[in-house]
Amino acid sequence: MVIKLGEHYFDIIENYREAFNQEQFENRYSEVLDKYPVIVGDIGFEQLRLKGFYEDRNKKADISKRFSSIQDYLLEYCNFGCPYFVLRRLTAHEVVRMTAEDIDMLVTETIDVEEEPVEVNAESITQETTAKTLKQFLK
């Protein structure tokens, strides 16, 4: 599922216990999170907390702020069994590709072609094909 927030698009990677709430996310989101490609939101005491993580390939990032450490973060800093979600920021290229796919899907769904059944006589097709093939062969 793709989420839009301002000019940013996110893909929901994980939505444990239906934690994601668009309105709550919009109210809590801060510009500080713009630099992170992955955002984790956890709910404790009915409050949403957001934390950003870098991709694993970013070697400059501290290990505790990389994607692979999200599970550790959830176990150490969040209440046991609390609802959480993980969002991945989509690149501009991914957004364009997804938009094109959506448009193609909409066009395909909206075109409703009603074809009338056509009766086909197998003998006439065979005779026409044989005649054409024979003419081409004799040339």
Concise structural overview:
The protein is an alpha+beta fold and 139 residues long.
Q: What is the CATH architecture annotation?
A: 3-Layer(bba) Sandwich
Main sheet? Answer: 5 strands, antiparallel
Which residues form runs of ≥5 with pLDDT under 50? Answer: none
- Rounded to an integer in angstroms, the radius of gyration calculated over CA atoms is 27 Å
Tally of separate helices: 4
Helical proportion, percent range: 25-40%
What would you give as the CATH superfamily? Answer: Uncharacterised protein DUF1027
Give the strand order, joined by hyphens, for the main sheet. 1-2-5-3-4
- N-to-C order of helices and strands: EEHEEHEHH
Q: Work out the count of structural domains.
A: 1
How is the quaternary structure best described? single chain
Assign an overall shape. globular
- Structural class estimated from helices and strands: alpha+beta
CATH class: Alpha Beta
- Our measurement of the CA-to-CA distance between the termini, rounded to an integer number of angstroms, reads 61 Å
Give an overview in words:
The protein is of the alpha+beta class and 139 residues long. It has a 5-stranded antiparallel sheet with strand order 1-2-5-3-4, covered by helices on one side. It is globular. The longest helix has 19 residues, at 92-110. It contains 4 helices and 5 strands. Strand 3 and strand 4 form a beta hairpin. The protein has one domain: Uncharacterised protein DUF1027 (Hepatocyte Growth Factor, 3-Layer(bba) Sandwich), CATH 3.50.4.20. 37% of the residues lie in helices and 24% in strands. The N and C termini lie far apart (61 Å). It comes from Macrococcus lamae. InterPro entries: YutD-like, YutD-like_sf. This is DUF1027 domain-containing protein. Pfam families: YutD-like.
